[in-house]
Amino acid sequence: MIETIEKSSAPVMDVKKVEQFAGQVITDMAAAISGVMSLIGHELGLYKAMLGKGPMTPHELAEKTGTFKRYVQEWLNNQAAGGYVTYDPETKTYELPLEHAAVLAIDDSPAFMAAGFNLISSVWYDKEKIVQDFKDGKGVGWHEHHHNLFFGTEAFFKTGYKVNLANRWIPLLTGIEEKLIQGGRVADIGCGHGASTIIMAQKYPASEFFGFDYHDGSIEVARQRAKEAGLKNIHFKVASADNFDEDDLDLICFMDSFHDMGNPLVAISHARTKLATGGSVMLVEPASSDKVEENFNPLGRMFYAASTALCVPNSHSQEGDYCLGAQAGPARVEAIVKDAGYTTFRIADRTPVNLVYEAK
Ligand SMILES: C[S@@+](CC[C@H](N)C(=O)[O-])C[C@H]1O[C@@H](n2cnc3c(N)ncnc32)[C@H](O)[C@@H]1O
């Protein structure tokens, strides 16, 4: 086939580069199908069953998880080929290293990611909707997606929130943590399943927390989560970013939701009318640079894909049509914040995954 390409259409084509790039695409295809394997490992408890157990045979893992050995053996070979588990040819055993278990098997580890594959799976489920939206441009609202999106988003972002939100980001804001320790009022806009709202409510029991999201299904789950956590200082309500009703708020957070808004200017202007004196708005956004070319890395690649399938279509489905996208960059966000009349805007923190902005 390569010879044909060389002779017929592209005499200057570098065959080595074709082969190299084809190899890259195979690697991507292997990663894409292996994402499903990771979800299977997560859902069947295969990773958890390997946690701290040292080398295991497929038979032992199948016995422990009540699964069919032949499938487990094939799955383990996929995992070994991807470097997720190690393989010892002498004993024909497989082992999940502790460092990998932290990412794949330990739910409350600060590096846990396995459940995040649900988010990726939702994009496959909804591919036809996205293809159609490319053609008619009507947008696809968050609520129109497969439910794996809601659970996957919760799982993916919760890990970072657990590490950073109450331990690092809130203390970095200007004069906010003292208020929350004494007893303040906080709103979390576009709260989804409320992972961030719950983390804050647990850390600051004297404060009152309000989670708002326009998607009623997400709010229902958020209420359930708060109940399970036994929290009394938290209230979840169905409301849009431009019409939520609580006043006198010391902190208003947009956790990975600002760029999803149809009209982020109206949303953040509304927030400004709801702030108490000295209050702050915190925008936690995906890490990105103003220059697109500086976002051309694995994380930017993932965020641009999510943005194409989820963020821009949601924004496009609402009034305003800003379509900021997940890689909006600090300059565009700052311009909107300033247009809304805020006098100060700063980058309060950067992590490999997030940019944290404070506006006052
Ligand atoms: C990427 S998710 C983030 C969810 C959650 N904040 C988190 O970090 O896990 C974006 C959320 O914004 C919500 N959303 C989108 N447009 C909205 C709007 N105009 N008003 C309120 N919520 C909105 C979606 O329903 C979704 O739950």
Structural description of this entry:
The model has no long low-confidence stretch (mean pLDDT 96). Strand 1 and strand 2 (93-95) form a beta hairpin. Helix 2 packs across helix 7, helix 4 (58-65) crosses helix 5 and helix 7 (117-125) packs across helix 9 (148-172). The chain has two domains: 2-106, Winged helix-like DNA-binding domain superfamily/Winged helix DNA-binding domain (Arc Repressor Mutant, subunit A), CATH 1.10.10; 122-359, Vaccinia Virus protein VP39 (Rossmann fold, 3-Layer(aba) Sandwich). The protein has 15 helices and nine strands. It is an alpha/beta fold and 360 residues long. The termini are far apart. A seven-stranded mixed β-sheet has the order 5-4-3-6-7-9-8, sandwiched between helices.
Write the layout of secondary structure elements.
Blueprint: H1 2-8, H2 15-43, H3 46-50, H4 58-65, H5 69-81, E1 86-88, E2 93-95, H6 98-104, H7 117-125, H8 127-136, H9 148-172, H10 176-182, E3 185-189, H11 195-203, E4 208-213, H12 216-228, E5 234-238, E6 249-255, H13 264-274, E7 275-286, H14 298-317, H15 330-339, E8 345-350, E9 354-359
S-adenosylmethionine (SAM) binds at residues 142, 153-154, 157, 190-192, 195-196, 213-215, 218, 240-241, 255-257, 260-261, 314, 318.
Give the CATH superfamily of the largest domain: Vaccinia Virus protein VP39
Measured between the Cα atoms of the first and last residue, the distance is 61 Å
Determine Rg (CA atoms, Å). Answer: 23 Å
Question: What string, H for helix and E for strand, traces the elements in order?
Answer: HHHHHEEHHHHHEHEHEEHEHHEE
Count of all domains: 2
The strand count comes to 9
Please outline the major beta sheet: 7 strands, mixed
Strand order of the largest sheet: 5-4-3-6-7-9-8
Estimate the mean pLDDT confidence.
96
What is the CATH fold-level name of the largest domain? Rossmann fold
Catalogue the unreliable spans.
none
* Overall helicity: 40-55%
Tally of helical runs: 15
Q: Structural class, from secondary structure content? A: alpha/beta
Bound molecules: S-adenosylmethionine
